[in-house]
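@channel sequence for tomorrow's demo:
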Amino acid sequence: MAVVHRLLRFWPSYIVVILLYYSIQIHTGSGPMWGLHNTLGQIPDCASGWKALLFVDNLVDNGEHMCLPWGWYLQNDMQIFVFSMLFIMIYMKNRIAGYISIGLMMSLGLGLNIYEVIVRDIHHVTHLIDFVKWQDYFVNIYIKPWIRCPPYLLGLTLGLLHMEYLEVRKKLKDHPEDDKLNANFFVKIRNVMLKKRWVAWLSQIMGLAFMITTVVIPHDMQKGNKWPEWAHGVYLSFEKISFTFGIYLLVLPTLM
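structure tokens (generated this afternoon):
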């Protein structure tokens, strides 16, 4: 039912957007360059709109003929959401096994990203010359769910941990002296943050540091310093998950 509910939320507006893009946008402008830059490929690519409606547009034809090029995000979101149900089922059977399976999938996604970047000789875009291989990077790495899943799965992991914490905190209201409940890692963090406010500030500062560092690291290349291939692979693999973890540290005190 969760998948059906998600489809019912997405489909109405998504169908309208596809129809607008497919049949109306071409009539909203004019000029010698209009067809070239605003409607190029729109008719033939959107004629097979079933790919977008079934959220597989980024996989069929390797994503080279997507009706809505920016629709890759919705495709990934739905694909990873459906696949994550498997991890939820494992988690419900055995929490440890659930976390291990999620961790393995995250590691696989990061490893594949590093491998693909190195093998295809992809560089992080900091200069115009780096756009030469952008199309190769976009269709083979950027829009693929097995590459995009690590930040999503990190969020899933943190969400499950937070749910467990809320369950423990609820039980603590009736059993405040229970040593087992008080031994929960997040309960300990909460108690420390309540007693020492600087710990909460430190968490937020670290979160901002993660986010800012992730953004400014490529500046080193913009100054003319060349990175080895493995460095491009590591950065392009970990930039999103690092930024996601930074957001979590930033909001952690408010979740306690």
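heads up for whoever presents: The mean pLDDT is 81.
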